[in-house]
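User: Can you write out an input/output pair for a complex, sequences first and structure second?

Assistant: Here is one pair. Inputs:
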Amino acid sequence: MRYSRSFIPTLKHAPADVETPSHQLLLRAGLIRPLARGLYDLLPLGLRVQRKIERIVRDELDRVGALEVLLPVVQPAELWRESQRWDIYTGEGLLATLCDRSGREFCLGPTHEEVVTDLVRRDVRSYRDVPLVLYQIQTKFRDEIRPRFGLLRTREFTMMDAYSFDRSFEDAQAAYQRMYDAYVRIFRRCGLACRPVEASSGAMGGKLSHEFQVLAATGENAIASCDDCGYAANVERAAIGERSPRQSPHTTDDPSAAPIEMVATPGMHSIAEVTAFLQVPARSLIKTLIYETDDRPLAVLVRGDHAVNEEKLALASGAAWARLADAERVQHLIGAPVGFAGPIGLRDLMLVADRALREPAAFVTGANIADTHYRNVRLDRDVHIDHWADVRNAENGDACPHCATGTLLITRGIEVGHVFFLGERYSGPMHATILDETGQEVRLQMGCYGIGIGRTLAAAIEQHHDAAGIRWPMAIAPFQVEVLSLSQVDPAVVETAEHLYDALLGAGLEVLYDDRDERAGVKRNDADLIGIPYQVVVGGRSLQSGQVELKRRRDGSVERLELAAAPAQVAARVQADLAEP
Amino acid sequence: MRYSRSFIPTLKHAPADVETPSHQLLLRAGLIRPLARGLYDLLPLGLRVQRKIERIVRDELDRVGALEVLLPVVQPAELWRESQRWDIYTGEGLLATLCDRSGREFCLGPTHEEVVTDLVRRDVRSYRDVPLVLYQIQTKFRDEIRPRFGLLRTREFTMMDAYSFDRSFEDAQAAYQRMYDAYVRIFRRCGLACRPVEASSGAMGGKLSHEFQVLAATGENAIASCDDCGYAANVERAAIGERSPRQSPHTTDDPSAAPIEMVATPGMHSIAEVTAFLQVPARSLIKTLIYETDDRPLAVLVRGDHAVNEEKLALASGAAWARLADAERVQHLIGAPVGFAGPIGLRDLMLVADRALREPAAFVTGANIADTHYRNVRLDRDVHIDHWADVRNAENGDACPHCATGTLLITRGIEVGHVFFLGERYSGPMHATILDETGQEVRLQMGCYGIGIGRTLAAAIEQHHDAAGIRWPMAIAPFQVEVLSLSQVDPAVVETAEHLYDALLGAGLEVLYDDRDERAGVKRNDADLIGIPYQVVVGGRSLQSGQVELKRRRDGSVERLELAAAPAQVAARVQADLAEP
């Protein structure tokens, strides 16, 4: 492709309000343009990358026997009512809805469980028709509250979504594993460092799920992973091992000593206020929080520097859900305002304490009296805990729950893929069944699987860039080689560049040829910005000694190649990079 | 692909209310399933065909330098207000509209003129940036009043839409011609007999446009084409030559004779009623119709067997538009009810007559009196015609407007593509300009271009099918070869079929292998229904003589191939078919 005949509108600077590296570089390198909030035009260079990612996805899914289909973007509301998602999704405002000319309700599909289950229940009837995995790569829409970070969180996006149908739990688990393995290969082939982590399943409703996280310092998600055994989970989901954490909360020299002491803490509601006032670290405080559950209210104790995990709390207390009680309710239950709750003197509330508090240590706690705290509270001496459990988010340094030796490290990632086991979540209410060998009706066991194509593109940039621009992994680079002619005036330079362009194309490479009438500096800067893996630079000086410059964008290394041998050598390097992962 | 692991749910019969051949066969061969009115699931076999068509489209567009982009489906209303299309399109009810969570209005794009013009006006600034053609292959939505005929008229559909930007009218015409030529190659490569015809441009607003019509007896559109010079146009657009039509309207032996005679025609409003009552053919009547225009009302005369063309009428009378007056207005203007208008005694109405009436012949006309007609009216003797013009739709046998000798024939077609010259229709109101060499601001001259991908798929079936099923052209067939094993019990048959499947795959062919545990008859019927171009049939009898059967779906011809030579011979036939057009 000749640059002069392409459409790659690069920018010197990104708009001031654009902060994320991938968002900046997508705009600056001319891959996207904004149309409206959370809606982007994908320009030729961006689309080329997207298509390459799609091709890898298709290739790996076809390999595991998944079949590609294309389902409508616009879906009838009736199906969503059947699965009981209509009210939930419209209530959250995530669903874009519309009425057709006859007044029937439709939505723009954020996912396609209903549509695909409807298809399968009509046309799949026998045990001989499964296992079946259907997938599509298609436009989705979610009316996000805060679309941001460019392609990382848009409202309209291209997504691969797949759905598996099996006759038994065991078969469904096997399908899940095949898709999981395909995902590992997909992201590896894309040239991305990606980690599958155990994930909470949110509104999708399932028991088993993994997120695929591309590791990047700028990632939105916190991942807890073991430095020893490889266990990894979303911090919201990560279990914490029972071994003591490395950092002990001890605050007194002799933990058995001092008696409880009441201190006045006027108007100090927050951990920060209390710790600053009492001159103790947050980890020496106990946070006592009052929760409502579907069963009964309860008080949960966690260390001052820890965060309660509501999902774990609900699980530990045998409830379906748990949420913070409001101020009025707290006042009613403990007789004191929010901020002054403590474990001592609480009546009629079940006490759940986080296991990190199971230490012979003295803590500061609220006193259940306005403007008052206690010092030197020891849970083993002064309080009866009804239930010890893991009820908080994992932190750096926590013990791994899976191995005896490992420690959890918190890293950041960008979720690019998701695999869910759904079971009968949709096949149940929508009556999707097959007949087994004996003529018995069996409910289909489902799984669903998604990969954000645009997100993967953006995540690749987050992981692979430097101050000058993008550094594309070879497998998803928009072109493999860029030829730069440093002069459009010097006939020897132009002729050589034209010749090299033809020769590299002839070698089967994907080549961008910067033939614009621009200064050498502009071309070099744009080449670094766009980030094609190899730059073949044709300039006056090296050309006089019959050579061209080969720059590898990944590490900035530069070497000189003899003109005649250059095409074959560049082709060999591209092949080597493609074979790499 | 093994049939047993694919998802090709064939049906013995299409639902009773499905009438069009392509709709029936798309359902029966398992290519599509309905989701809701005008919304279809595209199943694996259907998607394979769609992808092949898309690949040919991309290939030819890339060849003429068009650049692929991907623009959002969801578009902000503001842009449509800027181009002044919002009110028109929402008024017609064709636009699906929605509000986001903040109450801003959006639509689902039926086309993308506004979005692409908005992109270009921001990022294309210089004469050096054009010519530019941007295209996409993407999901569109039109809320059709009557979606029908399966993929021929849906509400959601996959479309290639392209937009050209040029600095001058001449350059824009050249871009138009390049796209036109690319279209000719695209449909030829798809294996379709397709005719570009001059077209009226409807609501898109442009001066020059062509439709690409796939010829098929079941087509919705009537095309007038010259049997001599190749001129072709939509009947609504086709001009009619000035030579006399072949069939003369004469009704009397001596056209100069009889005087006007009044006849009672009680309650006879329609041509059919009057001709039956008076025992004359429709072509001996003059239809007198009263039209409103933006200028003034007028009466138009056409032969009883002809149809007024409102676009031609408006053009001929110098008006922007013309539409039939309602009954009350007719009564007011002529003093008689609808059905009894005639040219004699009309005052204050301009009389426009179709040129086909310029004959020394006697006609029956209305008398402008209720329940009354005249016989023996001669326009050259009895009436003053203000304006003779071509104001009707072309008919079989009309003279060609372009050559001296040809005659127009009416054939039927399916519109699969469209090219429009837009000029400044969008660049004007949306202020899309570039600077020329002298720093002068110049408005971009635009063209727009569409191909219905799903329509092309369906049109291919309309043109290529027989009673047993589809007969795919090789270039867009979902697979090139199908292997049928007539027994899944006989180990020799199974083994040979498996071996052939592998060998044909090894020869680089796209192979469907029917390995299902089904009767031979079922497999043969399904193979004819699905319509893969070649069937390699492995059965007990021929196998005993070391042979397999090769059936060519296109003509039903069958030959025997020696087993060992079969793969190479089949590959050679596929290659020959691919090279054909």
